[in-house]
Amino acid sequence: MEKKEISRAVINRLPRYYRFLKELEKEGVERISSLELSRALDVTASQIRQDFNNFGGFGQQGYGYNVQHLKEEIGKIIGLDQCYNMIIVGIGNLGKALAKYPGFANNGYSTIGLFDSDPAKIGTVINDIAVRGIDELGSFAADNEVDIAVICVPRTEALKTASLLVEKGIKAFMNFTQADLEHELPDGIFVQNVYLIDTVMLLSYDLNNSKK
Amino acid sequence: MEKKEISRAVINRLPRYYRFLKELEKEGVERISSLELSRALDVTASQIRQDFNNFGGFGQQGYGYNVQHLKEEIGKIIGLDQCYNMIIVGIGNLGKALAKYPGFANNGYSTIGLFDSDPAKIGTVINDIAVRGIDELGSFAADNEVDIAVICVPRTEALKTASLLVEKGIKAFMNFTQADLEHELPDGIFVQNVYLIDTVMLLSYDLNNSKK
DNA sequence: TAGATTGTTAATCGATTAACAATC
DNA sequence: TAGATTGTTAATCGATTAACAATC
């Protein structure tokens, strides 16, 4: 099983490919060429072929790609042939919104636990799941198979929370705080940050640097 | 005013630099070297100096960088010496959470309008702002100085909504839907996507491709 | 002055694009 | 078979890193 390390740039494009193919499939499109894909996705056809060939190539000369097959293969690479259990820690406005967000379940990510330290929230039910106290977090993580933890606690609590979960064996974090978990947690732990502030800042940069 | 185009990779790092410097400033740190920055931010010292030198260089040989000055200069580049007006369109769970999110206001982004099509929501007040009907969106955008629109409507409405706002002169969009606004809207319009699904997908990829 | 650390040029590395032979 | 389009190699482009002279 000799793998030639696949670059992060390629990986990062996979979800986008997947989503687009899923849509094509829904529309009943059967085949598509790299050129057509490139027009729809605003990348070069060459790049698309290169990307796919990192994984062995899923097409056929003279034909192109079978939409359904390509979708499934990319899904497998991402790991979408499995389901994942998520917990959300910190049921503030954002945590609550994520608990209700249908997109996760629709794609195979089930939320199986919600946690907050506020006694007023503990016991309330969101989307059929009761909020548990943060003191139960450790035991819950130890007793259940949790794949991904969504961190929505206040920034000051983020590292402590994540570290506890790492101890209990959780390896993947979706981080909505400004804490730099990636740098602070041990190697082999995966962190994806959603830095909402950074995102709007990039918009103001663009607004200020376009008027020429 | 000869500008040598600054690469997006550099721009994308600016918010992170800014946030870290802001924190250093709060802690009372006065000066810092590129080497110290590189340790804290997990990039090379060389890259940090390169990045800053795209804008002329803010340091001093033998001394390093003055934290406050550097923070202010990067802030100016991002455009944080100004304030911005935002509107949020689509007050579902996510839209509501964003309306209550303090991070925006804390960084100079004021939310001045909320819009939804659901009559039950219209008139309700979130964070001192009354939700308006979506039918008022066009006139509101025309009558007020709106810099950034946050798109939280259902995906099927996203392009229509954004197009209307483009007509009214809005140039920057923060997009929480899966719609590919970037590709569909005219040139010169800035879109930042927050694809929550893509983010968790990258975590499942990592989970599946680490166990060696 | 000597030491430190930047600014900046040159070297390296990696990712994207171009081109075309392979082949369906 | 002829046409189409991939898989794949080679060329280009851009971003990161290394190195060091400039200078505070």
Describe this structure in words.
2 copies of one chain form a homodimer. With 212 residues, chain A is of the alpha/beta class. Chain A has 2 domains: 8-77, Arc Repressor Mutant, subunit A, CATH 1.10.10; 84-198, Rossmann fold (3-Layer(aba) Sandwich). Chain A is 46% helix and 17% strand. Chain A is built from 10 helices and 9 strands. The first copy, chain A, has a 7-stranded mixed β-sheet, sandwiched between helices. Chain A starts with 7 loop residues before the first helix and ends with a helix. The mean pLDDT of chain A is 95. Chain A binds a DNA duplex (24 and 24 nucleotides) through residues 7, 9-10, 33-35, 43-47, 49-50, 52-53, 57, 59-65.
CATH fold assignment of the largest domain in chain A:
Rossmann fold
- Radius of gyration of chain A, in Å, reads 20 Å
**How many runs of DSSP E, i.e. beta strands of chain A?**
9
Structural class of chain A: alpha/beta
Element string of chain A (H = helix, E = strand): HEHHEHEHHEEEHEHEHEH
* Low-confidence blocks of residues of chain A: none
How many domains is the backbone of chain A divided into? 2
Distance between the termini of chain A: 53 Å
How much is the average pLDDT of chain A?
A: 95
* Biggest sheet architecture of chain A: 7 strands, mixed
Level-1 CATH class name of the largest domain in chain A: Alpha Beta
Query: What share of the residues of chain A lie within helices?
Result: 40-55%
Discrete helix count of chain A? 10
The side-by-side strand order for the widest beta sheet of chain A comes to: 5-6-4-3-7-8-9
Which overall shape of chain A is indicated by the principal axes computed on the Cα atoms?
globular
Q: DSSP strand (E) fraction of chain A? A: 15-25%
Which CATH architecture of the largest domain in chain A is right?
A: 3-Layer(aba) Sandwich
Biggest interface goes to: A-B, 57 and 58 residues
